[in-house]
Amino acid sequence: MKIGILSRNSKLYSTRRLVEAAEKKGHEVKVVDVLKCYMNVTSNQPTVFYMNKGVSEKLLFDAVIPRIGASVTEYGTAVLRQFEVGEVYSVNESVAISRSRDKLRAHQLLARKGVGMPITAYAHSAKATDDLINFVGGAPLIVKVMQSTQGKGVLLAETKKAAESLINAFRDLDTNFLVQEFVKESQGADIRCFVVGDKVLTAMQRSAAPGEFRSNLHRGGTATVVRLKPDERALAVRAARVMGLDVAGVDIIRSAHGPLVLEVNSSPGLEGIETATGKDIAGAIISFIEKDSKKGPNRVKGKG
C-alpha cells in the first residue's frame, strides 16, 4: 500500500514510529505537511498537490493517517476532506476529528448518547457566573479553554472567588471555555485508554506531579500500566465510537459513581503509552489499516 501520514514534523516520535511500522510491513510511506498541500476542488478530478522544496507533486495514496495538530485543525481537516472526496481511505475521518477537537460539541455528543462525564457547564453571559459555579457543585472546579491540548488552558479554581475571577477573566478575553466538576477522588490521576477499532489495545494511568492537578506527561506527570475494569474498557470504546474515531486516546477518571470520560483525542501520542506499556501501538494501527481499508473508503460514523 501507499500510505500518507499527515504530520507537520517527520521527526516526532509518533510519526517516526508509524513510518517504521508501515515500512516494516512492506508499505510505501510518505510524511506530508498539510500546510504545504493545496487542492484542485473539482467534481470530476478532486486532487491534492504537495509543494516541497519548490517541487510540486500530485499525492496518490491508498490510505492516509491523519496526525493533524490542534493549531492547524481547520486547514488540516480540509486537506483530509479532499482525500476523502477522492475516495482515499482515512483511518480517522475529517468529521470525526472536527467533532473531537470542539470540546463543547464533543461533550454534547457524548451526553446525548448517555456517556458518563464530569458535570459540565457552558454560557456566554457574565450574569450566569454564579449559575455555572453552582451547576458543577461549587468550588473547587475546573475551567477549560475550548481549544487546548496537553493540559494547556486547563485551570483549577480552588475557591468560589477564584472561580469567579477565572470565569470573568476568560469572558473578558472573549475566549470560549467550559466549567467542569472537579472529581476529588481521582487524586490528580487519569487513565489514557488507547482504542483501535472496537478494542482497547492497552491503557496507562497518568499521575500528576507534586503540586500539580493535571496528569499530562508533558506537564511532568508519570505513567504506569493499569488494568482496566470491564466497564472502563466498554466506556472507552463507546466514547470513541460516538466520536466516529477508529484510532483514539480516550481519557477517563475513576469517580465514586463509576468511570467518567474527560476527553477523546483524535491524534493520541504514541511515545508515552508505548514506553509505559511496551506495546507496539504503531504496528497495531498499521495492521488495523491493512484490514479495515479493504472495505473501501470510510464513511462518516455517528451523528452531529
The parts where pLDDT drops under 50 for at least 5 residues are none
> Quick one: biggest sheet?
5 strands, antiparallel
Identify the CATH architecture of the largest domain: 2-Layer Sandwich
According to DSSP, the number of beta strands is: 16
Strand order of the largest sheet: 14-13-12-15-16
- Terminal residue distance: 32 Å
Beta strand %:
25-35%
Q: What is the global morphology? A: globular
Kindly report the average pLDDT value: 90
The CATH C-level class name of the largest domain: Alpha Beta
Could you provide a short overview of the structure?
This protein is 32% helix and 28% strand. It is an alpha+beta fold. The chain folds into three domains: 98 residues, Rossmann fold (3-Layer(aba) Sandwich), CATH 3.40.50; 63 residues, Dna Ligase, domain 1 (2-Layer Sandwich); 111 residues, ATP-grasp fold, B domain (D-amino Acid Aminotransferase, Chain A, domain 1, 2-Layer Sandwich), CATH 3.30.470.
Describe this structure in words.
With 304 residues, the protein is of the alpha+beta class. It folds into three domains: 2-99, Rossmann fold, CATH 3.40.50.20; 120-182, Dna Ligase, domain 1 (2-Layer Sandwich); 185-295, ATP-grasp fold, B domain (D-amino Acid Aminotransferase, Chain A, domain 1), CATH 3.30.470.20. It has helices spanning 13-24, 73-85, 94-101, 103-112, 129-135, 160-172, 230-243, 271-277, 281-292, and strands at residues 2-6, 28-32, 37-40, 47-52, 55-58, 63-66, 89-90, 120-121, 141-145, 154-157, 177-181, 189-196, 199-207, 222-225, 247-255, 258-265. It has a five-stranded antiparallel β-sheet, with helices on both faces. Strands 2-1-6-7 form a four-stranded parallel β-sheet, with helices on both faces. Helix 1 (13-24) packs across helix 9 (281-292) and helix 2 (73-85) runs antiparallel to helix 3. The longest helix is centred in the last third of the chain and has 14 residues, at 230-243. The model has no long low-confidence stretch (mean pLDDT 90).
